[in-house]
Amino acid sequence: MEIDEEEIVKLASKIDSGAAESLALLFVQMLDEEHTARHQSRPRLVKRFTEIIDDEQGVN
Prior knowledge:
The protein is mainly α. The chain has one domain. It contains three helices and no strands. It has helices at residues 5-15, 20-36, 42-57. Helix 1 (5-15) crosses helix 2 and helix 2 (20-36) runs antiparallel to helix 3. The longest helix is centred in the middle third of the chain and has 17 residues, at 20-36. The model has no long low-confidence stretch (mean pLDDT 86).
């Protein structure tokens, strides 16, 4: 999967200019997770997305 990370940062800056890079990184992590979880159950993927977001926000 080819992703232009600079383009994602530009798009993220339209959503949150103060945290564009961290938002872009979070998006790329979630895309990678979705790509590797193609054959996993949906609840497992949702759980993993929740963990990624919680880690980003410092929630335990």
